[in-house]
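Practice problem: predict the structure.
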Amino acid sequence: MGILSSMTTGVTGLQASGEALSIYGDNLANANTVGFKVSRPEFTDVISKSLKGILGGNQIGRGVKLNHVDPVFSQGSMTQTERPTDLAITGDGFFVLDGSEGRSFSRAGIFSFDKNGKLVNNDGMTVMGFEADEKGIIRNKMVPMELNRSVIDAKKTSKVNLSMNLDVRASEQTEWNKQDPEKSSQYSNGFTTYDSAGNAHLLTVYFNKVGDNQWGYHVMAKGDEIVGGKKGEAFEGASGTLMFNTEGRLMDVKSGKNSFSFNKGAQSDQVIDMNFGKTLKEGGDGLQTTQYGTNSDLYKHTQDGYTAGTVAGLSFNDDGILSAIFSNGEVMSLGQVAVAKFENNEGLFKTGGNRFRESRNSGQGFIGKPGEGGRGRVVPKTIESSTTDIANEFINLIQTQRNFQANARVITTSDEMLQEVINMRK
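Answer:
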């Protein structure tokens, strides 16, 4: 009888409305869950009877059923925090997590370092990334992200870069006297270098004009810091000649001796290369060190040595690279967070705890570096908020409630009609 089937149709509507209510309720419950993605129910009709068979038309529906729960992977809003280990992904992709339950993926970037120095989420699962070698260069090997270096070793100075001008108007003085460098030079300046043990040494470079467009340079160290040296007597460790063209550009550099044997256990015969820039003879522009008619001045100098240091801070950049800031001012990369990309995000399997697993529908995750191959970028000191729109979910609740009421009305009406049938025997 059609009346009985109409009651069954109404029941399917009640069931569908109840399931929809559960989905919308879950969305609202996770309004403050970091990295949460809302879901929406997708329904399909049920056909149980066709009056003309395969000819089409004249078909009677028998209700509705929940066909699919579709997660909506839209971008959540970004909320800034003050924690350096809070991360968010802008664009497509997931953080890669490893734990006792295997590998999973998440958009929730609330991480911290555990007692072993590993970067983990709130469930203790390890965040995976790409390792950095001893020089801080990122490699393609997948490893757990961890603070594997709390101390940076000292590095001796091997090169000093100088950017400067020597005054072409200076009077010519050919006689260099290392016993009296101040009076036998036209210009001097100092800079700090480091030996193999990380000890700092102040070196002074003196320049004396030996002829037209030619300058001699002499690098002096304190005598009491050199093996066999004397206190109060400077030691000349490096020297050479600078040659300029008539336009004031550095044409060539002739290097002489270069050896510093610092004491207190440091490596002997340390060579410190004085780099005045690429000369015209080498194919450069000769403009790092010049000879113009302005006062002699050292504009800038850098050197590649440093003393030992301990970790003073940590930070991530937009490429997901974890860097350690050491007490000696050096910064070194420790690793780079990995990001996984899927062909079908909606096909991922939810495991709870803001995590997903691969499934047959999602396909295999393509793991790579942030910002490459269509993967999103990593934003440090930021978390991705839930995509729940409370106002929109309230509207869905109202619609679901009305659908439930309407289907309940179908059942009560069918019941009244059946009651009339029963009453026909009286």
